[in-house]
Design a protein that fits this description.
- The structure is a single chain.
- 2% of the residues lie in helices and 45% in strands.
- The protein is an all-beta fold.
- Strand 25 (294-303) and strand 26 (310-320) form a beta hairpin.
- It starts with 6 loop residues before the first strand and ends in a 9-residue tail after the last strand.
- The relative contact order is 0.10.
- InterPro entries: Cadherin-like_dom (IPR002126), Cadherin-like_sf (IPR015919), Cadherin_CS (IPR020894), Protocadherin/Cadherin-CA (IPR050174).
- Residues 9-116, 117-224, 225-329 form the Cadherin domain.
């Protein structure tokens, strides 16, 4: 009499199946036992509804067995564990049944590449940043597990040798740090190519870019260059005569590179702008060599940066003589007293005249 239900020795059956397993592969299952005989014994098996597996039932003589058949490819990242119920039915009327739970653990394959949180990272950093300063932290995740999901970061070695001299990345954290001296005047931006690789065999990699904008600091003082057009300037030079050319260069950018130029001391000369940062040094008043024969000018250049930087250049201008002075006697009228009977050739008096000019103009 059908007074016994089928039963499984294992109420839970655990299977481990790699996610790379192809559909059609079969997996043996534990059989159920029924102490009844004949048609009251185990007659068939049924599997609870699921999208990945079906059941193949085999009947041979008085035994009935079942195999699990993979119908649809597994994906551990979508469903790492699949739980089903296997039911054994006998042939009695009404039929009795017993169940066993099937737990399929999907084993990981390295079938996912790392994914960066951003395809393009952007950041800014000041020039002259100390070595070891953190620039930015990149992050990538891998949907695989274990070594297949562990991500290691590196900077690509191809086509960016200069980058490897300037920056370094921590392999485990993805933190990019300053390795070399960053100079705005040398380079205003960097494009760093970052690679994230997992530890699978073979490893899979992904790439991202980091754009680093360098912020200018006012670390360069203006540079003054003076080009004299004449060794000397004649004292009768007209107002507006060009004496020298002055150029100013500041390697900084923006306000840090905007420069104002002036003559510090009071002299009969002035600076006139030709075009940006280029000037002419002009005569701006009457010159008189007999009063001042040499002028020492101090040209000062200040930028608009914070803190403000400045530089000075000293220019010596020699005034050359023009014959603009007549000789002068010491007296307008010279009285000479002569003794009678003075010998022929005796010196009566010495007369002298002076000339304020120089060299030939004064002889």
């Amino acid at each position: 009499v059908n007074d016994n239900a089928p039963s499984f020795t294992s109420t839970v059956q655990t299977l481990y199946i790699a996610e790379s397993t192809l559909p059609g592969v079969r997996f043996a299952l534990s059989e159920a036992a029924d102490v009844d005989i004949g048609k009251n014994g185990v007659s068939t098996y049924k599997l609870s509804l699921n999208e990945h597996f079906s059941l193949a039932v085999h009947k041979a003589d008085d035994s009935v067995s079942a195999e699990l058949v993979l119908q649809k490819a597994l994906d551990r990242e979508k469903k790492p564990v699949i739980t089903m119920t296997l039911t054994a039915l006998d042939g009695g009327t009404p039929p009795k049944s017993g169940t066993s739970q099937i737990i399929v653990n999907v084993l990981d394959n390295n079938d996912n590449i790392p994914v960066f949180s951003e395809s393009l990272y952007k950041t800014k950093i000041s020039e002259n940043a100390p070595l070891g300063t953190t620039v930015i932290a990149v992050s990538a995740t891998d949907a695989d597990e274990g070594l297949n999901g562990e991500v290691v970061y590196s900077l690509r070695s191809k086509d960016q040798d200069r980058i490897l001299d300037m920056f370094v990345i921590e392999p485990q954290t993805g933190i990019i740090k300053v390795k070399g001296n960053i100079d705005f005047e040398e380079r205003k931006a960097f494009e760093i190519r970052v690679e994230a690789s997992d530890k699978g065999q073979p490893p899979m990699s992904a790439h991202s870019k980091v754009l680093v904008e360098v912020l200018d600091l006012n670390d360069n003082a203006p540079e003054i260059t003076v080009t004299s057009l004449h060794q000397t300037v004649k004292e009768d030079a007209a107002v507006g005569t060009v004496v020298a050319l002055v150029s100013v260069l500041d390697k900084d950018g923006g306000k840090n590179g905007d420069v104002k130029v002036r003559i510090k001391n009071y002299v009969p000369f002035k600076l006139e702008t030709n075009y940006k940062n280029y000037y002419s040094l002009l005569v701006d008043g009457p010159l008189d060599r007999e009063n001042v024969s040499n002028y020492n000018l101090t040209i000062v250049a200040n930028d608009d940066g914070t803190p403000q930087l400045s530089s000075m250049s000293r220019v010596s201008i020699i005034i050359s003589d023009v014959n603009d002075n007549a000789p002068l006697f010491s007296d307008d009228v010279i009285n000479v007293y002569v003794k009678e009977n003075s010998a022929v050739g005796a010196v009566l008096k010495r007369v002298t005249a002076t000339d304020a000019d120089s060299e030939q103009n004064s002889k």
